[in-house]
């Protein structure tokens, strides 16, 4: 799966014009995940986990817009609730391709993010058992906002929702809020 992620990021870099300003951002933060209700998971509470990865920002035009391919490790799932209900633990490698709209302000640049996301399941466990027939690749979308502080630091809040169910038996869809801090490297106009 890491080969697929590398190929996607390299393809995005090759397609963009040479005049685009590129920045690498290392990101880390927290994920607050749950899943939609189903017969097997009628009460899914939030699971707090880790989110970390790399992103590339390619400034387009005068810097108001940017394209962001990313590679993030995200822990999702939730507490299945009730007495001894156990937990739902999903570890994923997410590949969002985000469009960013910047609002240029001198010291603080707020921005909006939106785009599709491929989600590659690394592991899935429900109440201590491996998820049966879970989808190894799911599709979703991302909507978020953030700010770049100076030229080095980014802060983001995102909502990720998954379109596909975890499996036929666990007909539930992950929902995740990510709070991320980033450190940028590279050039900026």
Describe the overall structure.
- With 189 residues, the protein is mainly beta.
- It has one domain: Porin (Beta Barrel), CATH 2.40.160.20.
- The chain contains one helix and nine strands, in the order αβββββββββ.
- The protein has an eight-stranded antiparallel barrel with strand order 1-2-3-4-5-7-8-9.
- The longest helix is centred in the N-terminal third of the chain and has 14 residues.
- It is elongated.
Sum up the overall morphology in one term: elongated
Q: What CATH architecture label applies?
A: Beta Barrel
As laid out across the biggest beta sheet, the strand order is: 1-2-3-4-5-7-8-9
The share of residues in extended strands comes to over 45%
Distance between the termini: 34 Å
Specify the oligomeric state: single chain
Q: How would you sum up the major sheet?
A: 8 strands, antiparallel, barrel
Task: Assign a percent range to the helix content.
Answer: under 10%
CATH class: Mainly Beta
Model regions low in confidence, pLDDT < 50 over at least 5 residues: 15-19
- In the CATH scheme, what's the topology name? Porin
Q: How many separate structural domains?
A: 1
Alpha-beta content class: mainly beta
Mean pLDDT: 80
- Tally of individual helices: 1
SSE arrangement, N to C: HEEEEEEEEE
Give me the count of strands: 9
Q: What integer value in Å does the Rg equal?
A: 17 Å
């Amino acid at each position: 799966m890491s080969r697929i992620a590398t190929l996607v990021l390299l393809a995005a870099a090759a397609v963009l014009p040479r005049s685009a300003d590129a920045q690498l951002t290392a990101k880390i933060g927290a994920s607050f995940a749950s899943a939609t209700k189903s017969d097997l998971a009628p009460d899914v509470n939030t699971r707090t986990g880790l989110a970390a990865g790399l992103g590339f920002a390619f400034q387009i035009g005068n810097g108001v817009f940017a394209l962001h391919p990313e590679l993030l490790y995200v822990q999702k799932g939730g507490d299945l609730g009730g007495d001894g209900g156990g937990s739902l633990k999903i570890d994923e490698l997410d590949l969002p391709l985000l469009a960013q709209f910047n609002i240029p302000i001198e010291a603080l640049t707020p921005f909006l993010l939106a785009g599709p996301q491929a989600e590659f399941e690394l592991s899935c466990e429900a109440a201590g058992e491996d998820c049966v027939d879970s989808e190894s690749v799911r599709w979703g979308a991302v909507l978020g906002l953030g700010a770049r502080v100076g030229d080095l630091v980014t802060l983001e809040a995102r909502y990720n929702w998954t379109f596909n169910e975890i499996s036929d038996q666990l007909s539930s869809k992950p929902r995740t809020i990510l709070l991320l801090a980033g450190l940028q490297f590279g050039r900026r106009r």
